[in-house]
Structure prediction request, 222 residues.
Amino acid sequence: MPKKPELIVMLTWHDYTVENAQQVFDECKDSMARCWGMKEHALPVEQMKELYAHMKACGKTTFLEVVAYTEEEGLEGARLAAECGCDILMGTKYADSINQYCREHGLKYMPFVGEILNRPSVLKGGIEELVREAKECIAHGVYGINLLGYRYVGDIEALYQAFMQEIEAPVCLAGSINSYSRLDEIKRLAPSLFTIGSAFFEHKFGENISEQIDNVCRYMQA
Prediction:
């Protein structure tokens, strides 16, 4: 039986880490979620390092999603992920230098594909082009792909179908997952991972965040 998509809880709202991320994690660390992440902005680095160390001490798999589109910014994000002791770097546009840095520092790398604009991010590009780019990244040895599916300016369903059928590596569906109907779509498409951040802070799946996390986890396991 295929493994069910796993939730990454992002301590973020509108693509920025929330100021009370430490408090939120402590209130939710005993929830069902195993995977936790932040963005590269806007906590001080020392706070990020402390929180990532705390997450890992609690047995969590940790992610840093870097919303950056230049090689220089992406490499800076990779250095931050390594400094924080993260398990997986998500985001950035693929570059050999970033990939090499991740390999040398024990980071799994899941870059964006396509033309990414703004923050919160918007995804543009033809489906064949996006699939081809993803395959090229995988050929260079990345762990998987971070796909901004619900931020796509185009046929979202066709994009998902193409990726699920053609990409033989972990795919994370990231961004704007904010309803049970979208969870139903994720169940059907069966990516390896998916992120929820802002929707928890906007109470889209219940009341307090810990309750919402468990609601989502139970729903995906049903």
Q: What stands out?
A: The chain has a mean pLDDT of 95.
